């Protein structure tokens, strides 16, 4: 279902804690089963704080503006061209800060929806034929992190957000497409984790978690002059241990990673906004438009003004 208003917060918290045991949805709608249903929240809102909600697998993004998502000790600003994932039974807080507005596009996946999509690709075909209604027993979990919104994801989001009607069958198909995209992203992270030069699997998992915390910080502080010492503190690693592991994980130093992200963000802003070059330079932390233009030319091969012409 698609909602254009946030449900009453107290009611939602109570229903989420009870796992929708009474099968009552928004506006008195009867749900087909217990547990979270598939819900898309496309809401234009100003200052908002929806705190401490026990959620399903959820994807948070914005069609315009920024929001802030907190889960556990992680508090992450979600820019327009990113999304953030929380997992089943994680408590989340969604905020839109004072003097800001945002048009949210948040997907709450129904209970075991993602697990069933993965299950369909995992067992042998014969097993699926013999056990067509078997439900997975383990919850699928993703890394809590910011992800770039790919062109493929944006196409699905546009289809859903602009649809005049949302038949449940059609929406399920589109959400299954989203889950497949998320699984591909998670596969990349697992490959990245496997390449870390550490013997114990649990240690690799923890190092990856710390490095992703740093990349999330970079994505939301591109306008700042970030230092190696500052980033290593976020990762809770010594400076040069952090530097070595970051280079192995992302095939780039933190400086190279930051510049590549600034250029990627600049290209997006050049193509999709009317901001002046000097305003883009300031937004991305460059001292002046000339410094930004030189870096842009070294990375892209043309000057920012030429990209728009």
UniProtKB/TrEMBL annotation:
Keywords: DNA-binding, Transcription, Transcription regulation. Residues 212-309 form the HTH araC/xylS-type domain. Pfam families: HTH_18. PROSITE patterns: HTH_ARAC_FAMILY_2. GO terms for molecular function: DNA-binding transcription factor activity; sequence-specific DNA binding. This is AraC family transcriptional regulator.
